[in-house]
Every structure is written in C-alpha cells, then in structure tokens.
Design brief:
This protein is of the alpha/beta class and 638 residues long. Among the domains are: 144 residues, no CATH class; 44 residues; 213 residues, Rossmann fold (3-Layer(aba) Sandwich), CATH 3.40.50.300. The protein contains 21 helices and 18 strands.
C-alpha cells in the first residue's frame, strides 16, 4: 500500500501551469529522488504532499497516521534559543517528561505523608516508564550524534541561533528534523551547505531510515547511493525511472534516442499521408483519401504518433577554445602554511600541479580549500612557505563570491562589456546557449538568481579561453543539466584545471589527481574521488585487528529465566542506598558516554560509532533495570 498517493494533480499559479495531471505513488521503505530543472515545480510538489498547498484538481492521499517531515531550503527555526536548545526542541515531549520526573522527585523528597508518598512513587514510576520507553536516557546521545555528524562541534552548542551563518542555520534545521523521527521524509536540497564528510554521514543516516523518503537534490552521487527510484519532473509532468541516478541517465538517453527515431519515422509517415490526401481528395481516389484522412486524424487524436521532437534537457552549451601548451609546472607550493588567529588551516603543504593535469581539492568546511586558491591567485599572503603560479599563463578564476557585477547593468550589456566589438546580435546568440533568451537578456544583474548569476560568470570565463582554469565550487547553484554540460566542456578542455568542489560526481568525472585537506593534515591521491575512497577502505581493512570478538550464543528461555533470578538475587543483597548509588553511577556513566558522540573522531568512524551506540543501549537497559529495582524496594519499604 502506498504511503502517499498523488492522483492526477494539477496546480498552477496565475497563468503558469506548474503541475499537470501528476500521478505518483510513494511507498514506505523506499527512497526516491525527485529531479528537474530549477523552477520546474519540485518544491511545489513537496508542499502538496505535506499538505501545505491544495491541488487545483486531483487529490493527495496520505495513509492513516503517516507523519510527514518536510525540510525546506529556507530553514524554519527559532532564533531566540541556543543551537543545542533549538535542535533539542525536537525532544520537547521527552523534556516535558524529564521535567515532570524532576518535579515529582522534589515532591517525594518533601512529602511526610506515607499515603501521599506512595501515590507520588506510583506516579513517578508511570512517568519514568514512559520516559524510558521514549528513549529518555539516549536522546542526548542522539542529539550529539546528529549535530556532530552534520559538522557541529560541542563548542558550538551554546551559540545563539541568531549568530550562526545561513549555512549553519540550514544544518541546524536538518538536524532538528532528523531528530523528530517522522515516518516519511521530504528533503528539499538537504546537502546544501554540507561539506563532503557531512554528506557521507547523511547518506548513512538515510540508509538506516526505515520509513519512506523523497529527496530533491542536484547531488548525483547522493542520488546514486540512496535512491531506489528517480522521479523526473519536466514540463509540468512526471516520469518514473527505476533504480538510481546513473540508471536513470542511461535509461533516459536510450529513451530519447528511441523517441528521436520514432519522431523521424512518424513525421515522414504523416507528411506522406497528408500529401496523398491533398493530391487525391478531389480526384478519382476521393473515397480512399477521405478514409485515410479520418484514420490519420483518429491516430493523431489517440496519440499514436510522436509529434514533438524530443530534446535533451541540457540547456546550457559551454565551449572552450584550445588552451596553449605552456611549460611543465603550473603551480608549485613549498612548505606552505596558513592560519587565522589560533585556527591553523595547513602547515608544510608541498605539492606541484603540472600542465594538463586536472587537480581537485576537497575536504570538510573550514580546512582552507578556498584560502589555498586565494593564495595561488595572489589575493592573500601565506604565513610561511612559498608558492608560484606560472606568470606566463593566462588564468581564468571562478570564485565563490559573486562580486564584480554592476547590479544595474543588464545581462547583454555585461557580456558586450567583457569583449570589445561584440554586437548585440552576437551577444544574444551567445547568451541563448546559457538559457538567456527573449527578454531575459535585458534583466539587470542585481535581479538575477544565484544560478543565473553563475551562468553569466561562466559565460564570461569561457569567452576568455584561458590556459589554466581555477574554479572554486563551480557547480554551486547549477541544476543537474547545467552541471553535466559544464562537465562535458571541462572534459574537452585541453589546459590545466585546479578545482575546489564538494560535488563527488563532478570530482569523479573531471579530476585525475585529488588533494584531500583535513585539519592541519593533507593527502594527495593519484586518481579521482572514487579512487580516494578505495584507498581509504583498503587502509581501514589493513588497520583492522586480526582477532574478532566471538558473537554471543543464543540463550534458551531457561537461561534467560536463570539470568533474571541471578540479577534479582544480586539486587536483593543491596540496600536502597546502594541501589540509588548504582542508579546515579549508571546515569553519570551514560552522560559521559553521550558526550563522546559529539567528538569528530567518533562520529566520523562508523565502527566506533556503532560500538558506542551498543554500549549506550546496554547502559540504558541496565539503568532502567536498576531504577526499577530501586523503585520496587522503595515501595516495599513504604
């Protein structure tokens, strides 16, 4: 049975039809990727599924009791609390139970009436049972695990939400939603503002989520690793493709080729039929011509012909001129070091980039990737070491900053100003390859979206035909079709590429050498991102201890009964004070263990994280058992 059923839904805003008779069934236990060009209506579909919008026609049905969690691109959070308290508000019900336990405990301590004390103890037991069942002794560990996995440090927890950056607020909103344990997840660009480690953590989290999920993302690597199905939204309609993104891309390419052949064949047939009808409608073969006209009209009305030429979704066309061959070493760094205040980014960084190489740079946020590019471009000076970017080469630099635009100038004027002698007609022809058509070319640069500004900047960069391309996150703000065309162009580029990116799919397609930066550490791999992962896995396998702990044997029910008797007898020998001390001891140990979930060495190590989870679960179970024994002893003594 479908968790969500979208039945022939149409939605329009003004005169623009965003969705037209869309039909989808979303199943529990399945993760689907929702893709389409920017502005295609993906977010609108999410809001319809979540119940925030109503369809103009058709219906959206959710199974009874389904809890839908929607992550928006714009964070829905309160700025009046600290990071810890805002994200922890996902546990408001648990925190309410915890506060109630504290209140009852205080009442018990102050109570002198035995009957009233007995009633308070019974109330405490009921609330405590609910608290334990709902995960009351593990929620802080879960909070630390998710905040740590998304790149927050324990030192960040006390920061007011109001002082966090836009990216940090988005990550906080994601953490809060993931902690709310919704049955069905709708994630709108969840990897925006996540670095490469946090994206990998999110993949593992979603792999362990047993409810359904739909993910809007331009991260094709993520879509490859988590998706069971791809749903494409194009021209207000949806098409389903089984499998992950790579399977979708291959299947769609074959489908387009088939449609192109059918279109050519059907167009030729229709042309011949119409020519025959026109020639013989008034002649001796009138009846035959009339019959063929009726048949043709019926077939057209029934949609038996492909009457529209299928087109590839790649709307942007990039083209680089052949780069000049220059020397052998493009960039040299010798014992380079850089720090800001007490934050050391890198030390003793030594490497060379040779002509023709495609050199990728990746790593978590804040380790100095952009800083390294800015040093190479001469924008900032390193604190130690030396660097040299061959001055004989022309360099095209694409930074993350969108500065350098005159906000009042229109798009076509910006392009003409960049190349002397370019006519308006030629500029508009060029811009059409970047999806600026009609009146779009007269939009002011200040009114453009981030993606549109990125396309203008790439257009200017490509027009310059440099020897070296230095690119800082060039796929940010680009939709999937634009990313793929950019990759095709970079593949054909004959010069040197130095690129910072978190886009793992992009790194796989483009780079042949990869620098991985981490806190005050770096490694260079002679391959792409997948090669880097292979090397990491091989190293982990080599570092694993040779001996493994034997799995526990399954006990019979008789063994379980005997174990329970042994525990009961152990508790029988303990006094109320000793049992209370055990409760405090277990609570303290569990609290200390929970703090370790926020340590990077823990949440970045899946095996260690799994061991800590198991240990925390065992401690929580033992704490519940000892607490119950203490409650029973108190009841007996009353």
């Amino acid at each position: 049975m479908a968790a969500v059923s979208v039945h022939k839904v149409t939605k329009q805003f003004g005169t623009q039809v965003v969705l037209q008779e869309v039909a989808i069934e979303l199943r529990s236990g399945e993760t689907a990727g929702l893709i389409g060009a920017n502005g295609a209506g993906k977010t609108t579909l999410f809001r319809l599924i979540a119940g925030e919008l109503t369809p103009d026609t058709g219906s959206v049905t959710r199974s009874r009791g389904l809890e839908v969690g929607l992550l928006r691109q714009e964070p829905d959070i309160s700025l009046d609390r600290s990071l810890h308290d805002e994200v922890g508000s996902a546990f408001d019900e648990l925190l309410g139970l915890e506060a109630k336990l504290q209140k009852v405990s205080e009442q018990m301590a102050a109570c002198a009436d035995p009957d009233e004390l007995s009633n308070l103890m019974a109330a405490y037991e009921r609330v405590n049972a609910r608290f334990i069942t709902a995960g009351g002794h593990t929620f802080e560990a879960r909070l630390n695990e998710i905040l740590g996995g998304l790149g927050f440090r324990p030192a960040d927890y006390a920061l007011p939400m109001s002082v966090l950056s836009g990216g940090q607020k988005c990550r906080a909103a994601l953490a809060k939603m993931l902690l709310q344990d919704h049955t069905f997840l709708l994630l709108d660009e969840p990897t925006n503002h996540l670095d490469i480690d946090a994206v990998r953590w999110l993949e593992k989290f979603l792999a362990g989520h047993h409810g359904g999920a739909v993910v809007i993302s331009h991260d094709r690597y993520l879509l490859d690793r988590i998706c069971d199905r791809i749903i494409e939204l194009d021209r207000a309609r949806v098409t389903n493709y089984p499998g992950n993104y790579s399977n979708y891309a291959q299947t769609k390419e074959l489908r387009i080729l088939t449609q192109q052949r059918d279109f050519a064949k059907d167009s030729e047939f229709i042309k011949k039929e119409r020519a025959f009808i026109a020639k013989h409608l008034a002649g001796q073969r009138t009846k035959e011509a009339q019959g063929r006209r009726k048949r043709l009209e019926r077939m057209l009305a029934d949609g038996e012909f492909v009457t529209e030429a299928p087109t590839h979704s790649r709307g942007v066309s990039f083209k680089f001129e052949k780069a000049a061959a220059q020397g052998t070493t493009v960039l040299r760094c010798d014992e380079l070091g850089m720090a800001f205040d007490e934050n050391t980014l890198f030390t003793n960084l030594t490497l060379q980039v040779h002509a023709g190489q495609r050199f990728g740079i990746t790593g978590p946020n804040g380790v100095g990737k952009t800083t390294l590019l800015r040093i190479a471009m001469g924008e900032i000076t390193p604190q130690s070491g030396s660097f040299l970017l061959d001055p004989k080469l022309t360099v095209g630099y694409y930074s993350q900053e969108h500065g350098g635009f005159d906000a009042q100038r229109d798009v076509v004027g910006e392009i003409r100003a960049h190349q002397t002698g370019l006519t308006e007609h030629d500029a508009r022809t060029l811009l059409a390859r970047y999806r600026f058509t009609g009146d779009d070319v007269f939009k002011s640069l200040g009114s453009l979206s981030g993606g549109e500004q990125a396309r203008v900047r790439l257009c200017k960069l490509i027009m310059a035909s440099p020897d070296v391309l230095v690119l800082d996150e060039p796929t940010n703000h680009l939709d999937i079709p634009s990313r793929e065309v950019l990759e095709d162009a970079l593949t054909a580029f004959t010069g040197t590429i130095i690129v910072v990116s978190h886009d793992r799919y992009f790194l796989d397609r483009i780079v042949d050498r990869l620098l991985v930066l981490r806190s005050d550490l770096y490694s260079v791999y002679e391959g792409n991102y997948s090669y880097y992962l292979e090397q990491i896995e091989e190293q982990r396998a080599a570092d694993k201890p040779k001996t493994r702990r034997k799995p526990a044997e399954k006990r019979s029910s008789g063994q379980d009964d005997q174990q329970n008797k042994n525990r009961a007898s152990r508790f029988d020998r303990l006094s109320i004070d000793e049992l209370e001390a055990m409760v405090v001891e277990r609570e303290t140990e569990l609290a200390m263990l929970q703090q370790r979930f926020g340590v990077p060495e823990v949440y970045q190590n899946p095996e260690l994280l799994a061991e800590l989870r198991e240990h925390a679960a065992e401690l929580a179970a033992e704490l519940a058992e000892v607490d119950q024994a203490w409650q029973e002893r108190v009841d007996e003594s009353g």
